[in-house]
Every structure is written in C-alpha cells, then in structure tokens.
Amino acid sequence: MCGIVGLIRFDEKKICTKQLQIFTQSLHHRGPDGSNIFVDRDRTVGLGHTRTVTFDTSLNGIQPMSFMDGRYHITFNGDILNFLEIREELKALGYKFKSDTDTEVILAAYSKWGDECQYKFNGDWAFAIWDQLKKKLFISRDRFGEKPLYYLKTDKYFIFASELKAFMSLEKDLRPEFDYSFLLWLGYNYGSLNSFLKQVILLQPGYQINIKENKVVKRQWWSTIENLIDVPLKYEDQVEQFKELFFDSCKLRLRSDVPIGASLSGGIDSSSVCSVTEQIQKNSKNLLRNITKEFNVFICEFSNDGTSEKHFAKDVVLNKNMKSNYISLDSSTINPEELNKVQFDTEWIDPDSIPVSMMFKEIRKKGIRICLDGAGPDDILGGLWEDPYFALIDEVKFFHNSSRFNDLMKIKNEINNKTDNSKYKFILRKIIGPNNFSKLTNFYNTVKNGSVNNFDKYNLIKKSRDIYPKEDDLRTLNYFDTRSYRQFHYYNNPWNLVKSDKISMSHGVAARSPFMDVNLVRYIFSLPSQTKIGNGFTKRILRDAMKNLVSTSVLLRKDKRGFNSPENWYGKNLGNYILDNINSSNFLNSNIFNGKKIKKDYENNSKYISSKIVMKYIQLMNLVKSFKEIQN
Fold first, then answer.
1. What is the pLDDT of residues 43-100, one digit of tens each?
2. Under a CB-based contact definition with an 8 Å cutoff, are residues 590 and 621 in contact?
3. CA distance 546 to 522
4. Can you give the pTM of this predicted structure?
5. What is the tens place of the pLDDT at every residue in 313-362?
6. Which of 283, 346, 261, 302 is nearest to 561 (CA)?
7. Is the dihedral of CA 184, 190, 191, 196 positive or negative?
8. Burial bucket for residue 74 (CB in 10 Å: 0-12, 13-18, 19+)
9. Which contiguous run of DSSP H or E holds residue 129?
10. Is residue 402 a contact partner of residue 527, using CB atoms and an 8 Å limit?
C-alpha cells in the first residue's frame, strides 16, 4: 500500500536529511498520497515513507508515525485487517488512540507485547519500528510474503526499502553494484532471495530483524507447520468449516476507506473471491469500515486469443450484483516507453508482467484503489500441473492400483491433456525421489531433443549461485503436502505475490489476496491431501464449498490456464520493437550475453529461441539501463 525505506549507520556518520528525502521519494509511485521522513536525535537512524491511503484518509495517518511521546517511530507498508479488534483489546488495557489507522494499532501492540505482537496480526505487512529509548530497530515481514522488503547490510550501515530501485537513489558510497550474473537466469530463478544488486537481499516471509548496538539479528518468527490445527474428520464438516473461514477472510479484506474492486479471470480461484464478495456486499450493513457502493470486477482477455476465458467470467457475473469491466489486451497498442516501464516497475525479467500491468492501469482509471485477487490456491490446493504427479507418488503400489491412484491418474491426464496410465514412472519417482527423477528426465530430454530450452549457450559470464529460503522441517509430510508447502511458502507463491505487489503499486492500486488469510492457510495445511485433490478434481474442497455460489461451468472446469500471454502475442504486434532492440549497439555489444548470436537465431526462426525469450533478453538490457539512469 505504501513505500518504506530506512537507514541505520554503525560508523557514527550523520544521516543527510536531503539524501534521505531523495531515497524516500524514489518510491513515490507506491505512495502518491504523501511522504515524510524521520531522523533520530543522534542522526544515525532515518526512516522514510510514501503513503497510499487505505484507512483513515485524514492527515492523522501520515508516517513515519510516532507513539508514546516520541518513544516509538514506525514506517509501515500494508494493512492489518483485524486492527479494529486489536484496538478494542488495547483500549481495554488502557491505551488511547489519536488516529483511526491500523498503523497506530501496530505501535500500541508493539509497546504492549513486543515482538510477539506479530502473532496478533491478520493481514499483509512490512514495517520497521525504532525504539528511541532502547535504541533498537525492529523489522517485520508478514507470514507469506505479500509485502516485499529488501535490505543491505555491511559493517558500516544497514539499509532497507520496499523495492530494489530505491537503492539506486542512495549516495554513491552507499549504492550497491550490479550482479549481472543473476539476470542470466532470465527470471526462472523465482524464489531466490538475492537480487541483481550485490548484497541486497529479500527478507524471507515470516522473518524479523532486530538491530541493537550495531548487532543485526535475523530470525524466523512464523512457521505454518508449527501452527497446524485440529480439523473435522468428516469431509462434509471440513467443507463447511472451509466455507466459513473463506467468508470470514473475504469479509475482512473488504475493510477499507477507499473503493475496492476485483480481478476476474473465469478460473475457480478469482470466481470464488468475486462470488463470495458479492454475497457479503448484499448484507453490507454487517460490514465494518467499507465504503464501496458498487462492486467492480475486471475481466481481461488477449485480443484474438482462441483460448479466452471470458465466457466463464460472464457466467460468474450473470444475475449478480457486480459491475463488469471488460479489458481487451492488445499488444499493438503498447508503445516502447510502456514496455520499458513494466520491467522497471516489476524489477524482474518476465514478459507476462506486461498484460498484468495493462490491467492494473485500467483498474486505476476506474478509481479503484484496492483490488482483490485469487492468488494462492494453485499452490495450496493442488492446482498446478505437476501436483497430481506428487499425489500419485504417495499412492503408487507395486502390485495393484487403489481407487485413489486411479482417480489421481485420471486427474493428472485431464489437467495435462495426456492419456498415459503407466505407473512405473511413479514407482521410480518414489524409489529415487522427485528431485533425482527430475534431473534424470531433464538429462533424457536433452539427449533426445538437444538443448532447445538451454539458453546458457548465449551467456558470456557465469550465472549466479543464488540464495534460497531456509525451509522448515517437513519430514512428517507426504510428497504432495511437501510440494504444496514448499511452493506456497518458498517459491511460486511468494514470487507471484511480490510481482503482483510491485505491478499493482506502480499504478497506485493495492492488491489483497483472501486466500492468504492466516486462519485459512493454517486450516488448509492441516487437512489431508485427499480433501484438496481427489474425486476427479484439483482444489476439491474449494469447488464443493462454492456450490450454489459459483457457476457450474466454472466449478466443473478441468483445464488449466494461467494469466499468460499467447506465445506469439509479442512477435505478432511487437516485431518492430523487438527488431529495433536486437539491432541496437547495446544489445549486439552486450558483455553479459551474446547479442549477435541471439539476433541470428531469432532472424533465422531457430527452434532454439522464440519471441518471448528474445523479449526476456531485451528486458534484461533495458532493466539494467533504467536502473543506471537513476544514478545520473
């Protein structure tokens, strides 16, 4: 919702107010509603904030905010959605409040419970609190990584910011260097905590940092597997409790003092969010802190795309109190400046961010400040293409097939459009392990097909050795639940959340994800795997919970389509843009990749490279260029 920055010096050098303001203003796009800074008495600690209003639109919500006569100072990005309940609890303990914000509730909660306050919060956040009395800085990131926070630590200073680009606006002696080797992964190293700026690290979700007397201590404060709960034994009761928790989550995420809308793809995830939200809005008198009078949903499709999901989305909104906004994504309408801006906004190499950015641009034009989405179920409820394979490993037996094995085999074939019923690959997976099987498969495909998908041949330097999240002990989980846990907590889901946050905030829109609710997540990971995938479907419990709420056509869908652009979407209308870039001197003379060879293969229609891959190399080049321009 906002942009936050901070700097603490260990070398006793004084912080320059002007430089802190420049550092803060680098994130103006994240907070167009105002900005401010705080510098402590010793001028060794500085905090900055750019504001996007969601609660309390008055000047009382300005940050950095102080509390208890200036003892505590906070810079905060996100929303604590249950702050009304926490505030009442604190009022009963004698606390008084000057504003109507969740920010002040965080400060009061920290003064009362210290680090343990994090367990009270339901929402998304990244914040830093400076305790002037104890000379201590406390930094927290939410459980699942909805709000980003990057940091740079040396012996002389500690710096943090919501986005990487902010580090480029630092003074020259503080500014990090580029790590070009990171970029050669072409965005396929999602989940990595390091970045293309040397020593700049993404704080892992569910982690905190405490800094006192020049000592920086990072530790994990949240582990889902250590917070599982008892669930009903009967499937019907499991469905009912899931439905109740999901309604509670959507209701909580409708709290806002600014207009809320939602994206609708026609898949089960976003359709569930929109349908439940519409039901809740019908009884809006029971909603706390909601000003949305008209529920806008935004339905996107790629122009001339034969696999459009628009008709499913139309089924969802039929006879419901939703205002449909249809957005046609046409690559021919994009100019080069917009293309270059998208990768600068996302700070990642990902051509499919372009249509997402186009969508949020239209959402903001409608005056929507918060957008609900369906992020999460693919990772947590077995909705990815590979998930049935892992469930099959758990069920495979040498001499006979169980009814569940046959059910999972059918799901696997339908979601992947296959007819293979052989079980021996799953026996081999079970014997040697999924990771070793994957390596073996990759080796076999390379021998059989050549290095069609191996782009290392274009590299002029070695790729980086990346830092990945520290994982919980998952030895008590089966293969399916282990995969879901890892994708949700460490890899696919956190990457998607950060990408969504940066793209949406580049247009002044805050993304909220009802499936990220802590109570719902704890419940889902406590359920047996057959509740999530089985009876012919992935996301089984979600489908059954949404009966009579979501259209039957969506509930019975078995095909899988993410919000990815068609393969030829770029080359068809962006041919001149691609040709201009690959013929530029910067591209041809790159010291990172072999631009001449990429150009030759592309112009010869080589099977080794597509327009989407060429776009990745162009994004790499322009991303570096745009970051370097900040320094000038």
1. 999 999 999 888 988 888 899 999 999 999 999 999 999 999 999 999 999 999 999 9
2. yes
3. 20
4. 0.94
5. 999 999 899 999 998 877 777 777 888 888 899 999 887 888 889 899 99
6. 302
7. positive
8. buried
9. strand 123-131
10. no
